[in-house]
Model the fold of this input.
Amino acid sequence: MHHFHYSGSSLHCESVDLAGVAKLYGTPTYVYSAATMADNYSRLQRGLAGLDAQPCYAMKANSNIAILRHFANLGAGFDLVSGGEIRRVLAAGAHVKTSVFAGVGKTEAEIKLALENGIFSFHVESEPELARINHVAGKLGVKAPIAIRVNPDVDAHTHAKITTGKSDNKFGIPLKHAAAAYEAAAKYPHLQIKGVQMHIGSQLTSVAPFVEAVEKVGPFAAELKAKYGITYFSIGGGMGIIYKDALASGQQAWWDAQPADQRPLTPETYGAALVPRLKPLGLKILLEHGRFMVGNSGVLVARVEHLKRGAGKNFLVVDAAMNDLVRPAMYDSYHEIVPLHRDSSRRALVADIVGPICESGDCFAKDRQLQELGEGELLAFMSAGAYGYTMASRYNTRGMAAEVLVNGGKFELINTRETFEQMIAGEKVPAFLK
Done:
C-alpha cells in the first residue's frame, strides 16, 4: 500500500497536491513519499517477527542521499554494489557497519574502501574474488568478513533480464560447488567466514520461489554453521510490487476486493512462509530488498506537450522520455499513468503515450486508455520510485530530472534539475581542434 490518492479531483502524495509540486519545480520531476517507505520497512520487519532480521536496503533501486538517510534513520543497513554506493551512504551521514557489499566485479580500490569503513561483510561471487579480497585485506593488515553467494538454480519466474538465481546467470557459485569454495576460503589467512548468501531475482510475485530457494540453501547454511561457525544467512530480496492497478492498490478497499487466492505477494505472506523455515537455523537473517522498499513510494510527474492524431492512432506526447524512465523501453515494463486532475466528464482517449526522444522505443504505453488531456496538463507515472532516476541518462542531451521528497504536508527538493552547464562541465575541446 502507499500514500498516493485523489483528494477531490487532485492527485496527492500524502497531504501534498502534486500539481503544486510541478508548478514550483517544473517537469519531469520524481516525487517520493517518505511515509510509504517507512510503512514498507516496518511491514517487512513485522512480517519477519521472531527472527533476528536485518533489512539491508538495496540502494541500486534509488540512491538519492536523502532517501538513504531516511532508511538509515529507520534502522536499515544497505546492500551495496559499487564504491560509489559506499560513498553515497557516507555522504548521507550514515555508515556501512551493518551493510553488505555485493557484485561480480569488485575492484581492489572498492574492496579497500569497504574495509576501511568497516563493512559488515562481502558477498563473494567467485573464487578469484576470494583471492582478491584476501590480498587487499592482507595489505591493510585486517581480516575481511565474507559470505559466498550461492546460486541455488531456482527459476524466479520473472523477466529474463532480472532473474539471478538460475545456473546460467552470472551471479554466485553453484550450490553443488559451494562447499569446495568455502574450503578454499578457509585457507586464506586474511578472510573471516561469516555467512552465506543467495538472491534469485527481482519482481517476484509468488512466495513459492523464495520457499524453494530457502529449502535448498537452508540445510547448507546449517552445515556451514556447524563447520565454520557462520552467524548469518542472507536470503536476498526480490519481492515484487504492484504496477497494474497501482493507484487503487493504495486503498484498503482494493485489497479487500481481491480474491484471497489472487492477492499480491505481501510482507505478511512472505514472512508467514519463510519464518518457520528460517527460525530453526538459529542464524541472523539478512534481507536485501530494494524495489519493495521504494517502488510504490514514487511517481514521475510529466506535462503534456500535445496530442498528435495520426492515421488510426493517437500519440500523447509528454515532456518525460526514456532517458528519465527507461524501464518500459528496456523491459517492456508497465506503469500505470494517471492524470493529476481527474475529470469524469471528459471523454476517454486511447493513445500511445510517448516522449520526445528520437527513438521509436521512447514509448511508455501503447493504446492506453485515459481521460482526454491537452497541452500543458499534468500526469503521473505510478510505481516509479525504483529503477527510475537511478537508471536515467542524458540521452539527446536532456538534463536529469528533479527529485522531491514529501513528508506529510511538507515537501522539499532533494535533487535539483540538471542544467546544460552542469551536463557539459567535465567536457572540453582538445587543443589540437582549436
